[in-house]
């Protein structure tokens, strides 16, 4: 009797068949994929909220998807349940939640006033998110990168790009407390230009801090301050969400040049390349050139060394 559903094997190559029965899949292999599906559901719900004009809840849906997307990979590494199936599912969920949902949200909020121009920019943003994710997937099968490059992303990641793209809505909600009001053509054109900028940041080669190495090892004396900081941040986010999102987005944009400078400084340190003139302030103490010698170097009076010839001893014939 044929099976109704194909057996789940996350790492089996396509087109390969097995005659022997497959072993059962551990539950820990399913937990990260379930979190990814929850992120996808949150992104789809954000699209519905945007179409219905409930922009505040649409933003909450995209932010929830970003949080879930940030923890599913960590859960997979913690449970040792990473797989190619999970990587592909995560990319598809990211495209919907951070490519399609923000584009539809901004188009329904303001870009629709510009007609076809607004729709074209929304498609450009979604396409750039898809290209960003495709480039990331292709890098998984490429050669392994140096360990120091693991602290940087190539371009702005898709979740961060979605959060950055919604900055015009945050600014408008600062004075209206989450209620959308009619806005003119100036706001629409500013949102259009800003969305194009974020779209090209996603597909650019600008190195950005990944944050993967943050929090792996925490000193004991920093545990209580971190607890307090997390509680304060959560309280501020609940009490003043639009101020926190606006300030956080501006700070992220301001850190991009610093991450680029840090990446270049680390690369030159590892590869041993000399610093250019405009990179001199990155180094605290500049290396002084070696002074010129006015006296000629002393000659070697002992003369050239002669190589010693090694003679092989031949056995003597016994008479």
Number of domains: 1
Question: Roughly what fraction of the amino acids lie in strands?
Answer: under 5%
The CATH topology is Four Helix Bundle (Hemerythrin (Met), subunit A)
Average the pLDDT over all residues and give the rounded result: 78
- Can you tell me the overall shape? globular
* SSE string: HHHHEHHHEHH
Tell me about the biggest sheet? 2 strands, antiparallel
Helix content: 55-70%
> Would you tell me the structural class of the helices and strands?
mainly alpha
Strand order of the largest sheet: 1-2
Number of strands: 2
Q: Give the distance, in angstroms, between the N- and C-terminal Cα atoms.
A: 93 Å
Quaternary status: single chain
**CATH architecture descriptor text:** Up-down Bundle
Can you say what the CATH homologous superfamily is?
CDP-alcohol phosphotransferase transmembrane (TM) domain
Are there runs of 5+ residues with pLDDT below 50, and where?
277-295, 306-319
Key descriptive features of the protein:
319 residues, two-stranded antiparallel sheet, disordered C terminus, mainly alpha, Four Helix Bundle (Hemerythrin (Met), subunit A)
General description of the model:
By secondary structure, this protein is an all-alpha fold. It has one domain (27-139, 149-213, 222-275): CDP-alcohol phosphotransferase transmembrane (TM) domain (Four Helix Bundle (Hemerythrin (Met), subunit A), Up-down Bundle), CATH 1.20.120.1760. The protein has helices at 31-51, 55-79, 84-109, 116-140, 158-165, 167-176, 185-202, 223-239, 241-271; strands spanning 152-154, 207-209. The chain has a two-stranded antiparallel ribbon with strand order 1-2. Helix 1 runs antiparallel to helix 2 (55-79) and helix 6 runs antiparallel to helix 9 (241-271). It is globular and about 55 Å long. The model is unreliable at 277-295 and 306-319 (pLDDT under 50).
